[in-house]
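Discussion board: Methods & Data

I've been asked by a reviewer to show the raw model output for two of the constructs in my manuscript, not just the figures. I'm not sure how much to include, so I'm pasting the format here to get opinions. Each protein appears as its amino acid sequence followed by a line of discrete structure tokens. Is this the kind of thing reviewers expect to see in a supplement, or should I convert it first? Here is construct A:
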Amino acid sequence: MKEDFNTQQEEGTFYEGRAKRAVENLKRRGANAYYAASKEEALSMVMDMIPEGATIGTADSVTLLQVGVISALRKRGGNEIINPFVRDDDGHFVVDEEERDELKRKVFFSDVYVIGTNAVTLDGKLVNIDGNGNRVAAMIYGPKKVIIVVGANKIVKDVEDAIRRVREICAPQNAIRHATKHHRTEYLDLPCAQTGVCSDCNHPWRLCRYTTIIEGVAERKRGHLNVVVVGERLGI
């Protein structure tokens, strides 16, 4: 009897088809886009894109942690890493808010910015929503080179679906993550964290304040945007 309870093979085939379609459309829009079948292959691709001696900027990203990009860079050595969101083993920020703000600005002058994304559409658009704006701003302008790593589970039909995904999946789960793992219990007050449904709130700790849609790369900035789409479930 076929093991119908195990659908990893079917999911992998499904993800591969969607990922390759998104990659082709990202290329059509001027990005350097690549398909990686696994997070191990994705890590190798990303490391090859980052020259030794380059200054690396980054921000909060579950995907990067799962792929192991930052830990691999530290192990390799030779790169200064600017990460405003470094935390200790207990989940607390290593630096205070004032220093984090300075590091966020410093990221804009990095050689390479490595980050995840909230969603990518099948026709090659990158959609992101931020609470503070530092992550999405650096994707667009500042760092000389941007490398985005995204799991195939984040591929959606269109921009409308992408925004819905962020507000109904990413935001509530991130709020719970910050509360339970980073001691930021104030995020549990968010309506979406309590109900799992976006109410378009105006809560002081709202995570959805700055929305960006990258629809392509300007001709003079060819080579600036690099996207690795991984045929696995990654991130939130």
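Construct B, same format:
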Amino acid sequence: MGSPHGVITPQRDGFWVKNVNFHNFNFNNAAAIGSCSHCFKPPATDSDSRHVNFSGLTFAPTVDRKIRYQFPFKGIYEDHDGSLTGKGPGSWATSNWNHNKWLTQCEVDTTVYDGILCYSTVSVRRIVIYNAKPGSLNGKNLYILPYDADITSQFADQ
């Protein structure tokens, strides 16, 4: 017997899961939600389920695990009403990677959520660098700042 999922999210941005009731996911490591359809084994050619939106979810007491991420473990789930994470509207669930851990704004829950839960004060985003040459980023710091039109507008004419 396998470890089933109720919904496995796709390899695309903008997918919505709305008004779904989950029941009887309390056996054999089952989970209500899984990440990345068609990414089940390495080497995956895609970076996972990306940014998926959730609202109107209900979980019966027979749901032991709400999320179980699958390879390559990089899904980003935005909870628009708090029904997935219990952290309120605009909260997030994502995989358990150190770079996603914010000191007081996120917490690790590997038992029920298989990852990190963040409050709405944090935005979780996917970053992709295209056409990087092997080794071109070795030893270089990567700084990521919040988008601010006042800062970026100074580069518009360059």
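Answer (T.O., handling editor elsewhere):
This is acceptable in a supplement if you add a one-line summary per construct. For B, something like: The mean pLDDT is 83.
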